[in-house]
TrEMBL record:
Top-level taxon of the source organism: Bacteria
Protein source organism: Actinospica acidithermotolerans
Name by which UniProt lists this protein: Uncharacterized protein
Length: 143
């Protein structure tokens, strides 16, 4: 049976994230057991970048790898699954989750990261929190 677009997307995402982890000397981190165990490595990588020297390809790579990681956390920790949507921008790979209220919600890791990259250096934990809030996986505390 031929691979679907969503299966190809997920395979590519996993392969890219695994290669990135090896490059950061974090290949031994078991994302299956704890997807947040990679966060310290990723935070260090993000903090160590010279953003003034970034070209367009660097920003695209950072955007893609951060979105791959955010997706990984939502998939492994919350059981999210992919859904392909088409909008004015073209295909948009959305993660579908069941929120704390029992409703179904769609979240775009690419959109979450796009908005998160507005702050330099980006804050990965803030992006993760935004993804969890957008997916209604956690309640907002405004105390």
């Amino acid at each position: 049976m031929p691979e679907t677009d969503l299966e190809a997307w997920e395979r590519g995402r996993r392969e890219a994230l695994a290669a990135f982890m090896v490059a950061l000397d974090a290949g031994e981190v078991d994302l299956e057991a704890d997807p947040l165990a990679f966060l310290p490595y990723l935070n260090r990588f993000v903090a160590d970048q010279d953003y003034d020297a970034f070209d367009q390809d660097d920003w695209r790579y950072l955007h893609a790898i951060l979105a791959a990681y955010i997706a990984d956390v939502l998939i492994r920790k919350y059981g999210a699954r992919w859904r392909l949507r088409h909008d004015a921008r073209g295909p948009n790979y959305m993660l579908v989750t069941i929120g704390y209220d029992g409703g179904e919600y769609e979240t775009s890791p690419m959109d979450i990261v796009y908005h998160g990259l507005g702050q330099v250096p980006p804050v990965v934990t803030r992006m993760l929190a935004t993804a969890e809030l957008t997916a209604h996986l956690v309640r907002r505390y405004d105390g």
